[in-house]
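Weekly structure sync, notes
Attendees: PL (lead), two postdocs, one rotation student
Agenda item 3: pending single-chain targets
PL asked that the sequence for the first pending target be pasted directly into the notes so everyone works from the same version. It is reproduced below exactly as submitted, 613 residues in total.
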Amino acid sequence: MKQTTLPRRRKSQNTAVLAESNHATRDVEGRSADCQPGWFSWRGPLAFASLSGLLLWAAFPPWGWWPLVWIAPIGWLYLIQLPKLPGKRPYLAIWLVGLIHWAALVEGIRLAHPALYLGWLSLSGYLAVYLLLFIGLTRVAVHRLGISIVWAAPIVWTGLELLRGHALTGFSMALLGHVLYRQPTLIQISDLGGAYAVSFLIMFVAAAVTRTCQLWLQPPAPLGSVGRSWPVATAAALVLATVVYGQITLRKYDARLAADPQHAVQVNVALIQHSFDTIFQFDPQREREIFASYLQLSREAVMQQPDLDLIVWPESVYSGTLGELLAEPPLIAPPDASMTDDEFRETVQAWETAVHEKNRDVAGSLNALAGTPADSTGGIWLIAGTDSQRIVAGDMDRFNSALLIDPRGHVAARYFKMHLVMFGEYIPFGRLIPWLYQITPITTGFTPGDRVVPFSMPQATLAPSICFESTVPHLIRSQVAALRNEGTPPDMLVNVTNDGWFWGSSMLDHHLACGVFRAVENRLPFLVAANTGLSASIGQDGRIDQVGPRRQPAVLFTRARSLPWSNGYAWWGDVPAGICLTFCFAVSIVGAADAIRRRKQRKVRNKVSVAER
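Predicted structure, written out during the meeting:
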């Protein structure tokens, strides 16, 4: 009896101890949950996430307090280092902070039309997801894989910036590195790894400062003061190397240009800027006024400097009430046209004749003021943005295009915009569901172009882009590479844009920052003609030679100069950032596996708890 009773007694005692232990654990977890800081506590995730969001917003335009960018991510990095995120639903709090941060940063998107508020908030909410991914993936790398935050944070951030530039057609505006677009010394490393390299540097410094503070706040350890300071010392060495590289690069360029100016490609350019905010209502009189205003500014520019080689107008302003019509035989009236095929052919021929006369009159008047002989190709060329409609066998496509018009008024080259803006130039599934265009301010969608076209003049060859294409680094790089492979390497980049959508907001500054980085990444001068601003002439070293005013008429005269300049980014492109993105995918797999494992453990604990009851 004793031998059979004793084990049962011990078993019952062990069961009671286990049950008591489980109850005690649940009590401790309950008390700790009750003690968790709330959303609005200074120790909660909302406070630290908001601190970083506010500092980073202040570092960007319109405030432009760029030194803040080095410490701006510290609040996010502090949350990453915590063993457990405080509060209930911490990631929801972080996402809300990201939503507010992005809504403040890109608030200019909403200004042109009330319907754009939905797009503004949707874009902000989407971009806020990347903040969640950054904190979540970096926490996995630090706490599950044991990687130092000094390395994990910049790698994850850079990889996610590359992902953001490609996902859902891409949004590469307001990258972390863009804060430094007016600091030419610090951005020269972009010719090695693009703007992503500058973002990596900034996040590395912030992570090093955060880790150093953590080490110094810990109890004394055998590391000593030197061991505790290694992160900030490494960051300082990296910044010093960046400064040295930048200074050497800038001085070498200046020395080459001064020693051998004859080998530089030079073009005398006038960038024409007027100020017409975008409105979603077709007004023929307003369209004529816009065209006449730009023509008048161009004439004044020629009278001031008759030795101009090129005049550049912004996107779409050349259309007036007479955009391009490109018709290919057989000329068949579209199904919705209320005319016969013969009437349609006569209309098309009359339209084409009117467009040709318009081009001839504009080019002729400008070159007459400059004293250029008639039928000469050595006079003033014109680049202008317009709408182009192409009709093939009764089907019509509409393009956002840029024209290169020679001094005789002939269209020497035509470029169709390749990277369209979602909800700005087309509605997803709009071709399949046409009524979608009837409930938005966009009356009809554009068709994307399929290739880049060189704009070749006697003085230089230019690679054109339109509007937000300049915000897509891999697009501009691929266009430059394509032209080089075709045997027409560009000497300069030119962008025509209508930023009247943003009514003078800081979106103009974000757009200009992208142009600065495209110049450094491709080592080509970058010319921007922008309606409402900011028109600019940017050297191939990233220094802004001239920039136009905000929402005011202006003519920017510049002598754009280009020297042959090879660089790493032209060869390997986004491969370094791609390695960072691969790391993100690997960490996400680890995080997902860990989440599945913990979910199974919770189910087992719940079953044990139910069995005990």
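Discussion points:
- The chain has two domains: 36-255, 262-565.
- The domain at 262-565 is CATH 3.60.110.10 (Nitrilase/N-carbamoyl-D-aminoacid amidohydrolase).
Action: rotation student to compare against the earlier draft before next sync.
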